[in-house]
Amino acid sequence: MRAPAAQCAATRVAGRRVFRPVAAASTAWTTDVTKRTVPTQLEEGEMPLNTYGNKAPFKAKVRSVETITGPKATGETCHIIIETEGKIPFWEGQSYGVIPPGTKINSKGKEVPHGTRLYSIASSRYGDDFDGKTASLCVRRAVYVDPETGKEDPAKKGICSNFLCDAKPGTEIAMTGPTGKVLLLPADANAPLICVATGTGIAPFRSFWRRCFMENVPSYKFGGLFWLFMGVANSDAKLYDEELKALAAAYPSQFRVDYALSREQKNRKGGKMYIQDKVEEYADEIFGLLDGGAHMYFCGLKGMMPGIQEMLERVAKSKGLNYEEWVEGLKHKNQWHVEVY
Ligand code: FAD
Q1: Closest CA to 82 of 114, 112, 57, 107
Q2: Are the CB atoms for 214 and 33 separated by under 8 Å?
Q3: Domain named FAD-binding FR-type: which ranges (predicted)?
Q4: What would the DSSP string read from start to end of 210-240?
Q5: Comparing C-alpha atoms, which of 140, 91, 339 is closest to residue 239?
Q6: Which residue intervals of 114-261 are DSSP H helices?
């Protein structure tokens, strides 16, 4: 559903397409990283889990959809702000389910509704406006490129990601969840956080950094180091970079971001710079931090993990550590968090 023209506008910001209501102040690239007052009643109670299911999903409305990748990125990623009115609360690191509209024919030839897709929530529980009334997603548009022709086949494009990236202000979204307890922040607000993301895997970490640095929550005063490793193909594929730069400038001793730009940078051996190569550059520091109680998080495409594991195993061996025992020890102490898809 297209919102009335008077209420929304499509503009281009730094070469990027932006649909948002004219009056809305939110953008996906704020550089104001000062701590905001938030409605702290959202700190109360137990962690919400599966409040809404497939049979009776929560109906929310899209507020805005912004393309946050540049023209030379390998694919389009959108930041989507959803008006929830605070009625589907969540904690940082959780995901929502989205049921795309329409039906499909299942393997038995029956027409059934589309299945639910999960998306990590990219804002803190207070949302991008710090009032607890919205939640944001970071969605990569799934396209299908025919391996023979090398051309996109729109008939095979991803259903839910295209529905979300094409949504207009006012579009209704059927949501489930929240789900997930793998990527939660540690109870110890002083524990260092090492967050390793590829692509949209940055979403839960944005929810973390906003909670850690941009909100005034009396019961959660982050005192540790926040270290983000971000892997994307090139500079145009960076996500939320302006926000990251502002945080690095405001918290030089507490916030670090290191990029692995596979198509722009070279690793030490002269090959493409993948996320594991960038993490390896700081392996000694990371092993030390983990030894001292840091939490390490991984989020992004499944394909990121084998390279990371192989690198960590090699480093562990060089330190005389048994890799399996080392990882098991971290898992046992709940310092190891992996959510890949
Ligand atoms: P689908 O319609 O499910 O299609 C899947 C793929 O198959 C697409 O690439 C499509 O092009 C291709 N395809 C379709 N038809 C054919 C065909 N006939 N032959 C061959 N290929 C075909 N994604 C994000 O973008 N951001 C997130 O933050 C995020 N978080 C997630 C968190 C979790 C815990 C999980 C499990 C997943 C997450 N995902 C996230 C992935 C997301 O759930 C979806 O899987 C993704 O958006 C693709 O869904 P879709 O409906 O667009 O594609």
Answers
A1: 57
A2: yes
A3: 55-185
A4: HHHHSEE-TT----S-EEEEEEESSGGG--S
A5: 140
A6: 159-166, 203-213, 241-250
Domains of the chain, earliest start first: 36-179 (2.40.30.10), 193-340 (3.40.50.80)
Q: Which two tokens stand for residue 66?
A: 């912004």
Quick one: what percent of the chain has pLDDT higher than 70? 91
113-139 pLDDT, tens digit each: 999 999 999 999 999 999 999 999 999
Q: The whole model's pTM is what?
A: 0.93
Cα–Cα distances (Å) from 332 to 185, 277, 289, 325, 335, in that order, read 16, 26, 16, 10, 8
pLDDT in tens, 241-285: 999 999 999 999 999 999 999 999 999 999 999 999 999 999 999
Question: 26: annotated binding-site residue?
Answer: no
- Residue 292 three-state SS: coil
- Helix ranges restricted to H, the chain: 159-166, 203-213, 241-250, 275-281, 283-291, 304-318, 323-332
DSSP structure class, residue 43: G
Percent of the chain whose predicted confidence (pLDDT) is above 90: 91
> Please, which residues bridge with residue 16 across strands?
13
* Distance from C-alpha of 239 to C-alpha of 261, rounded to nearest angstrom: 12
Q: What distance in angstroms lies between residue 301's CA and the mean position of ligand 1's atoms? A: 11
Tokens of 113: 């509704």
Tokens of residue 248, six digits = 């690095």
Token digits for 311? 């690198």
> How far, in Å, from the CA of 143 to the mean position of ligand 1?
9
Quote the CA–CA distance of 247 and 209 in Å, as a whole number.
Answer: 9
Closest CA to 208 of 269, 219, 198, 194: 194
Is the Cβ atom of 119 under 6 angstroms away from ligand 1? Answer: yes
Quick check: CB of 276 below 6 Å from ligand 1? no
* H/E run at residue 336: strand 336-340
The reply, when asked if residue 36 is annotated as ligand binding, is no
